[in-house]
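Deliverable D5.2: sample structural annotation.
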Amino acid sequence: MARKTANDDPPPSSRLRSNGGDPLAPVTIAVGQEDLLLDRAMQQVVAAARAADADTDVRDLSSDQLQPGTLAELTSPSLFAERKVVVVRNSQDLSADTIKDVKAYLGSPAEEITLVLMHAGGAKGKGLLDAARKAGAREVACPKMTKPADRLAFVRGEFRAAGRSATPEACQALVDAIGSDLRELASACSQLAADVEGTIDDAVVARYYTGRAEASSFTVADRAVEGRAAEALEALRWAIATGVAPVMITSALAQGVRAIGKLASAPRGARPGDLARELGMPPWKIDRVRQQMRGWSADGVATALRAVAAADAGVKGGGDDPEYALEKAVVAIARAARSRR
C-alpha cells in the first residue's frame, strides 16, 4: 500500500470551497447594511442546521463579545459532537487580535460548526472579508436598498416567495404606502398574503393601508415643496393623527427645503450621479428634487427656511400650539414653491 504523503492531503480551506451555496457551509459571510437581509441570511443558516440537528446550539454574538480566544473556545471539539452555529454581528468592528483568530480558523474550520460573519462591507475590516472570500466562504449579499426600483422588486419577490399573485399596481401602491423600511414592507406582504384570497390588487392595498402613505413626515414635506398646500395639510393631519412626532415633521420639511436650495445652486447640466456625490443625495432623489424645484426662486428658498425655523421653535416649546406652527410652515413653504410662477 502506497504511503500517504503530506502532499496527498487536501488544502485546509478545501472544505470551504466544496460547499457552494449550501447554508451548512463551514463559513457564511453576510455582506451589506440591510438589517432584514442580514437577519434572514443568519436565520437561513440556523434553520438548515436545526433541520439537520434539532438540538443545534446557536451562539449569537456582537463584535465586542468575540474577544481573543473566544472563537477557539466556541469551536473546540465537544464530547457529544453537537452541531453549532456561531454568529458574529458587525464583524468589521472586531479587534485586530480577534481578526487574527478568525483568519486562523478560516484555514481549518471545525466539523459540525457553521460560522456566520455579518459584515457591513466597505473599507473597515476589509482584510477579514478578503480572507473569508479567499478561503471560499459562502457569501450572501445584503445591500442597502436605496432605490425605489429595488424596493419594488423586493415586494414582488416577497409575494412570489409566498406563492401569491400581486399586480404591478398593487406592488407600487404598497411601496408608496409603506416607504423604505424593508421590515415593514415584508410584514405588509406577509399580512396581505395571509388575509387576502385571489390576486392582490391596488384596491386591496388601499383598503388595508389607506392613510398610511399620508402619515409619513416626508410625504408632508414632498407635498409642501411641490406647492400642493391642500394635500400637504391633509398629509400633515394624517401624520399627527397617527402619532408622527412634530419634530420629525419639521426635520422632514427642513430637509426638503434644503435639498431644493442645494440643487438650485449646483452646476447646471451635471449628471445625477455626479450631483449625488457632491450633494450627498442618492441619484433617485436628485431626479425627484429636480421635478420639485421648478417653481422655486432663491427668495422662495430663504422664505421657506425662515418658516421652517419658526415652526421648529414652536414645536420645541417656543409656542403654545405645535400643530398650528406646522400648519403655518406648510402653507408658507407651499406658497414659496410658487414664487417663480
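Annotation notes: Residues 298-318 form the longest helix (21 residues). Residues 1-20 have pLDDT under 50 and may be disordered.
The annotation will be released with the project's public dataset once the embargo ends.
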